[in-house]
């Protein structure tokens, strides 16, 4: 089959597609190099205004030389469609990087500092990007960022007569004046978008999420900026005021230019420019929905509400709550027991931090070692307050599935299968206790990375204490209070924790202010805290990479605490 060509450029493959254009990897035989070609969608044969503006803006962008702007090599028309020829950026997009890992403050600040002067250079020529987002920030093979699509964003205003709307941009990153479709925009709209991008780099999602793209846009116009430290308590308090200024509703209150924004970030104390793994907390209010970031995470083409799954059960039966910071979709595969009601979820956690300086060998994950008939440990001279070996599928634990996780009874125990990385599903009992010991046998059946454990004194607002282990041999104790993560014992390695797929017996004592954690009858650590004196008890799991993470629980007990 003959190679398809656009002008002299030999098309090799499609590398991206959006509402305005498709992008192809192509080879330029004249200069013997690979290039990226953006082919503008639509037949523009009869749209002279569009063509003239396209050519004018393409020439202007091509004249602006800056290392953080993707250079334009050529432009033209092919079979009635306009095209731009640009440098091929091999390193992918910022959207790709955000999907893989949350940024440290140091790395996010460095990226902002690299691209801010480029934006100012373009703004000085009277051009506003209008659609600045992670998908339009590209990386070369050395990891240097550069901004693309200035021309597309600016001349796209000429298509308003075709689309019936003068609103240009992606709802998740639109400034309030863009949402209002103000006639005159300036560089401060890009300052706003850059503030949203910073928020997303540091948390994995934007500040505003809602059911539809238009609802997201309206939140930029009306809603107060949420605290970023509610999601990242490790970030400095000074960052709050910097973000508040960058994302001010009134553009007169924003930074005058992007370089000023970058300088303020760089002025933060050096100690705050951490290089370690970020600590994240999922935060969803009872009324907030969450935007669906599917495919290109820089767009907001679809959205669904966050949900809480509740079931009317008898006293002593458990309830499951699910939440994820980027999406939540219900699935009708639910248990017939009780009536399931969908509402907003609150207070689930995402943990993306690692042992402080401790590198643990991953161990033999390929094997499958489980105790098939584990016998519950009965602590001497204690009373069993609640027990379930999960052998009865009618014992009350939920059997449901949605995008985040699947709960199910199986012959080997009760499973929580986490579908999405950084989603932390948990199930809780409906009985409340003040002082209690929780015991469970648990094993990670997946070769992926994740954690699992026990939670106690769960409050109605989603606050609780957690006792968790990773399947690489580390543990942690901490609490969620008002949806903010507060570690009490940081990740610590202990040889008592069986790694990989092996079963661990977990015991968590919530005894007065003492919070003690045992694994396989070995005392691991203790913390003291008196914020929560009573509450529900439950189980939790979390996937730390992109693969599903399956945890099986057996022999759950609540007993009176005993040393």
Topology:
Layout: E1 5-6, E2 9-17, E3 21-28, E4 33-40, H1 48-63, E5 72-78, E6 81-87, H2 94-100, H3 105-123, E7 137-139, E8 145-147, H4 150-155, H5 160-163, H6 176-179, H7 188-203, H8 213-222, H9 238-246, H10 258-266, E9 280-281, E10 290-292, E11 302-304, E12 308-310, E13 318-321, E14 341-343, E15 349-350, E16 384-388, E17 405-410, E18 413-418, E19 426-429, E20 436-444, E21 450-458, E22 464-470, E23 474-481, E24 484-493, E25 504-511, E26 514-519, E27 522-528, E28 536-543, E29 549-559
Antiparallel strand pairs: 1-2, 2-3, 3-4, 4-6, 5-6, 7-8, 9-15, 10-11, 12-14, 13-19, 16-29, 17-18, 18-29, 19-28, 20-25, 20-29, 21-22, 21-28, 22-23, 23-24, 25-26, 26-27
Helix pairs in contact: 3-7, 3-10
In DSSP terms (H or I, runs of 4 or more residues), the helix count works out at 10
Mean pLDDT, to the nearest integer, reads 75
Number of domains: 3
Top-tier CATH class of the largest domain: Mainly Beta
Going by CATH, the architecture of the largest domain would be Sandwich
The SS-based structural class is alpha+beta
The geometry reads as elongated
Q: Which range does the strand content fall in? A: 25-35%
| Count of beta strands | 29
> Which regions have little confidence, pLDDT < 50, spanning 5+ residues?
152-167, 282-381
Give structural notes:
It is built from 10 helices and 29 strands. 18% of the residues lie in helices and 30% in strands. It has 3 domains: 5-87, Phosphorylase Kinase, domain 1; 94-137 and 170-281, Orthogonal Bundle (Transferase(Phosphotransferase), domain 1); 306-559, Sandwich (Jelly Rolls). It has 563 residues and is α+β, with helices and mostly antiparallel strands. The longest helix has 19 residues, at 105-123. The model is unreliable at 152-167 and 282-381 (pLDDT under 50). Strands 16, 17, 18, 20, 25, 26, 27 and 29 form an 8-stranded antiparallel sheet that branches. Strands 13-19-28-21-22-23-24 form a 7-stranded antiparallel sheet, with no helix packed on it. A 6-stranded antiparallel sheet has the order 1-2-3-4-6-5, with helices on one face.
């Amino acid at each position: 089959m003959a190679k398809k060509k656009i002008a002299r450029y030999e098309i090799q493959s499609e590398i991206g597609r959006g509402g305005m254009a498709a992008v192809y990897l192509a080879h330029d035989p004249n200069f013997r190099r690979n290039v990226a070609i953006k082919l503008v969608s639509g037949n523009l044969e009869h749209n002279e205004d569009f063509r003239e503006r396209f050519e004018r803006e393409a020439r202007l962008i091509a004249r602006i030389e800056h290392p953080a702007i993707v250079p334009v090599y050529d432009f033209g028309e092919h079979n009635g469609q306009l095209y731009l020829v640009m440098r091929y950026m091999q390193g992918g997009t910022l959207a790709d990087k955000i999907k893989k890992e949350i940024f440290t403050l140091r790395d996010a600040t460095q990226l902002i500092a690299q691209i801010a002067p480029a934006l100012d250079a373009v703004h000085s020529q009277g051009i506003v990007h209008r659609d600045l987002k992670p998908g339009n920030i590209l990386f070369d093979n050395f990891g240097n960022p550069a901004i693309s699509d200035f021309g597309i964003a600016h001349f796209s205003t000429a298509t308003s007569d075709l689309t019936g709307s003068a609103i240009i941009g992606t709802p998740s990153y639109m400034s309030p004046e863009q949402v209002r479709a103000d006639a005159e925009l300036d560089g401060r709209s890009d300052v706003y978008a850059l503030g949203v991008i910073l928020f997303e780099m540091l948390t994995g999602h934007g500040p505003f999420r809602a059911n539809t793209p238009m609802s997201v846009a309206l939140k930029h116009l009306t809603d107060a900026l949420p605290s970023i430290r509610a999601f990242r308590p490790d970030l400095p308090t000074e960052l709050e005021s910097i973000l508040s200024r960058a994302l001010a509703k009134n553009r007169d209150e924003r930074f005058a230019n992007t370089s000023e924004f970058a300088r303020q970030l760089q002025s933060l104390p050096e100690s705050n420019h951490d290089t370690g793994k970020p600590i994240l907390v999922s935060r969803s209010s009872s009324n907030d929905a969450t935007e669906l970031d599917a495919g290109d995470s820089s767009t907001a083409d679809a959205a669904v509400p966050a949900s809480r799954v509740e079931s009317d059960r008898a006293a002593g039966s458990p309830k499951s709550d699910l939440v994820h910071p980027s999406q939540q979709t219900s699935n009708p595969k639910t248990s017939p027991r009780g009536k399931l009601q969908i509402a907003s979820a609150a207070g689930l956690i995402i943990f993306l931090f690692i042992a402080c300086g401790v590198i643990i060998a991953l161990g033999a994950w390929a094997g499958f070692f489980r105790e098939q008939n584990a016998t519950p440990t009965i602590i001497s001279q204690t009373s069993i307050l609640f027990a379930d070996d999960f052998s009865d599928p009618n014992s009350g634990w939920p059997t449901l599935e949605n995008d985040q996780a699947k709960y199910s009874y199986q012959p080997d125990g009760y499973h929580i299968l986490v579908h999405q990385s950084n989603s932390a599903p948990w199930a809780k009992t409906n009985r409340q206790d003040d002082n209690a010991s929780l015991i469970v046998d648990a094993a990670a059946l997946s070769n992926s990375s994740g954690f699992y454990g026990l939670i106690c004194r769960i409050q109605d607002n989603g606050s609780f204490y957690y006792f968790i282990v990773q399947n690489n041999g580390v543990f942690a104790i901490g609490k969620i209070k008002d949806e903010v993560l507060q570690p009490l014992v940081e990740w610590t390695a202990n040889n008592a924790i069986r790694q990989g797929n092996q079963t661990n017996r977990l015991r968590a004592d919530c005894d007065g202010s003492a919070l003690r954690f045992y694994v396989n009858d070995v005392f691991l650590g203790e913390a003291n805290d008196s914020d929560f004196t009573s509450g529900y008890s439950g189980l939790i799991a979390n996937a730390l990479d992109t693969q599903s993470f399956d945890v099986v629980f057996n022999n759950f007990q609540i007993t009176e605490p005993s040393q």
